[in-house]
Amino acid sequence: MSVDNYAVEPARMEDAAELAPRLRTADRREVMASHGHRGLQALESSLDRSELAWAVRHDGELLSLHGVVRVSILGGTGSPWLLGSRSLVNHKRALMEISRAHVQGWRERYDFLENWVDAGNALSVRWLRWLGFTLDPAAPYGRFGRPFHRFWMSCDV
């Protein structure tokens, strides 16, 4: 998939090492609060567990990695995730277009999508609502019991 000067390609484990030092502060905080992971560990774990994962680049610069983890082999639930670079905020329009297309594809593959987002990550909360996810009220979650929203979407297409 290509949008203007954006390339969306299958993610590789090497992409985790490239993105880790440039992760957004909000993403660093979120993965530490949820799982006690540092950036590289969170990226590698997410890529390793993902059934589908992509790297988004603009003119060769890695902006984000995102994907979906199948929660169980028997169930039709997917757990979507996205971790981005500090410069991702300068590419909102492309991210919106790319992510909308991917969510539509996930809805065809899974029965249900769900994950958790740090309640203090206002940009991600707004983006998830725009994508059509329902966000539950914030509740203690993760390793340190910080407020997170469970976000979800039923995929009856």
Short key terms for the protein model shown above:
34% strand; single chain; 5 helices; Aminopeptidase; 157 residues; alpha+beta; nine-stranded mixed beta sheet
Write up what this structure looks like.
The protein is an alpha+beta fold and 157 residues long. It has a domain at 2-109: Gcn5-related N-acetyltransferase (GNAT) (Aminopeptidase, 3-Layer(aba) Sandwich), CATH 3.40.630.30. Helix content is 36%, strand content 34%. The chain is built from 5 helices and 9 strands. It has helices at 13-19, 25-35, 39-49, 92-109, 122-131, and strands spanning 2-3, 6-10, 52-58, 61-70, 77-84, 112-118, 134-135, 139-141, 146-154. Strands 1, 2, 3, 4, 5, 6, 7, 8 and 9 form a 9-stranded mixed sheet that branches. Helix 1 (13-19) runs antiparallel to helix 3. It is globular, with a radius of gyration of 15 Å. The mean pLDDT is 92.
